[in-house]
Specification:
mainly alpha
């Protein structure tokens, strides 16, 4: 079970440890490493608040998921035609490249339409 350990799993690990099971047995039961079990037991036996997740370090995003949602809808309703237009109308404090990057995560890739050659009857 690599990756994220659910709060329920954390609670069960702490309960098994309180019942006297060894860390190795608990680790094998859940498919985790022994040190992961030890870290969970150390962190949660005192507080028993398994749903408490510490805030992530670093700077918060300027262009929030709600802003991305608003930008996608503005483009869909043709209230804005491109990223530069979005920036001017809705997000003047955010760099256009930041908007482009966040829209790319939604599957909206910015591109310049290629010009087609003019075909006349002579062609």
């Amino acid at each position: 079970m690599p990756g994220y350990t659910t709060p329920t799993t954390k609670a069960r690990i702490c309960r098994y440890k309180a019942e006297g099971l060894h860390e190795t047995e608990i680790a094998e039961k859940f498919g985790l490493h022994r040190t992961t079990v030890l870290r969970i037991v150390k962190r949660y036996t005192k507080t028993e608040d398994y749903y408490n997740i510490k805030p992530k370090p670093g700077r918060s995003r300027k262009f929030t998921p709600l802003d991305v949602h608003l930008a996608v809808h503005a483009l869909a309703r043709t209230e804005a035609h491109d990223v530069a237009d979005l920036q001017r109308k809705y997000f003047p404090e955010i760099n256009a490249q930041t908007i482009r990057t966040r829209l790319k995560t939604c599957g909206l890739n910015a591109y310049v339409r290629r010009t087609k050659p003019l075909l006349t009857e002579a062609h």
